[in-house]
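hiii so um. not sure if this is the right channel but i have a protein structure encoded as C-alpha cells and i wanna go backwards to a sequence. like what aa goes where. can anyone help
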C-alpha cells in the first residue's frame, strides 16, 4: 500500500507498548497463553485463534499460545503482534527473546543475532526504484554466509487499511519470473525473514496454523514495518522500538560497502 496520514505510525506505537510489557512476562516457567490472554486485543486477524503469535524454538511462525507450553531457560521465542486502529489501519511487527541471560552465547542466540542482522540488511536494500529482489538478496546472502537457510513459503507484504496488501516481499534470492516488484515511494511494507539453522523446509501442523521446521532445527524471525522514501533516501522504520539501534556489524558492513537505509 502507499502511505496515508499517520495511521501506520499510530499502529506501530501501540506495538511498542505491547512488546515492552511482554518483555516483563518473558521469564522461565511462564506459560505461553499468558501472552495472548493478558494482551487480548479482541480483534480476530485472518481467523487466528489468539491475539498474538508465540513461536518457540523450532516453530517458524504462527505459533498458538498454549497451556501446555511452559518456557524454560534456553528457549528462543518470537512474539508477533498485529494491531488495528479504530480508523482501520493495520500494523505488524515481531521480535525474539532468549529465555535466561546465561544462555546468551548459545547457538540459539547466534541464530537470533544473524536473523536480526539479515532483517536490517534487507531494510538497507529497500529504496524507491529498487526491487523486492534486492531485499531478498541482502537477506539470503547474509543467512547463507553463516550456514543458515531462508524459509520461502512465507513472506513480508504491503500493509495498511488491509492486513495483507501488495507487494509480496520475498526474502530469498533469486526470485522466479513474475515474483519481483519495483518499490515505489510511499509504499508501506513489512520485512520479516524467517531464518532456519538447518534446512529451509517447513511443515504445517494439524491445527492448520503452527509452522515448524521439517528437521526440528531452530528458527528465528524479526520483523519491522517500513515506509519507502524517495529515490536514494532508503526507507524509514516505522516500528523502531525505544532504545533499539541498528546492529553494530550491519552498520560496519554498510559503511564499508557504502550502503544505507537508515
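sure thing!! here u go:
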Amino acid at each position: 500500500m502507499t502511505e496515508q496520514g499517520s495511521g501506520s505510525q499510530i499502529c506501530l506505537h501501540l506495538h511498542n507498548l505491547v512488546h515492552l510489557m511482554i518483555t516483563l512476562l518473558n521469564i522461565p516457567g511462564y506459560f505461553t497463553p499468558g501472552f495472548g490472554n493478558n494482551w487480548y486485543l479482541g480483534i480476530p486477524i485472518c481467523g487466528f485463534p489468539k491475539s498474538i503469535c508465540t513461536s518457540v524454538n523450532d516453530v517458524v511462525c504462527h505459533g498458538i499460545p498454549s497451556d501446555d507450553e511452559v518456557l524454560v531457560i534456553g528457549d528462543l521465542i518470537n512474539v508477533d503482534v498485529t494491531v488495528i486502529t479504530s480508523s482501520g489501519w493495520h500494523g505488524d511487527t515481531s521480535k525474539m527473546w532468549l529465555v535466561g541471560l546465561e544462555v546468551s552465547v548459545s547457538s540459539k542466540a547466534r541464530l537470533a543475532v544473524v536473523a536480526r542482522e539479515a532483517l536490517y540488511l534487507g531494510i538497507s536494500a529497500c529504496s524507491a526504484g529498487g526491487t523486492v529482489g534486492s531485499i531478498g538478496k541482502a537477506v539470503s546472502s547474509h543467512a547463507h554466509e553463516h550456514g543458515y537457510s531462508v524459509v520461502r513459503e512465507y513472506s513480508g507484504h504491503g500493509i495498511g487499511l488491509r492486513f495483507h496488501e501488495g507487494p509480496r516481499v520475498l526474502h530469498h534470492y533469486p526470485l522466479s519470473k513474475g515474483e519481483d516488484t519495483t518499490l515505489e515511494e510511499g509504499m508501506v511494507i513489512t520485512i520479516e525473514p524467517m531464518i532456519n539453522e538447518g534446512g529451509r523446509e517447513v511443515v504445517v501442523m494439524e491445527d492448520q496454523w503452527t509452522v515448524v521446521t521439517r528437521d526440528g532445527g531452530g528458527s528465528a524471525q524479526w520483523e519491522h514495518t517500513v515506509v519507502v522514501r524517495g529515490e536514494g533516501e532508503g526507507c524509514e522504520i516505522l516500528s523502531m522500538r525505544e532504545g533499539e539501534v541498528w546492529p553494530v556489524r550491519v552498520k560496519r558492513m554498510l559503511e564499508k560497502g557504502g550502503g544505507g537505509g537508515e
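oh and The helical segments are 7-25, 33-38, 107-124, 132-145, 248-257.
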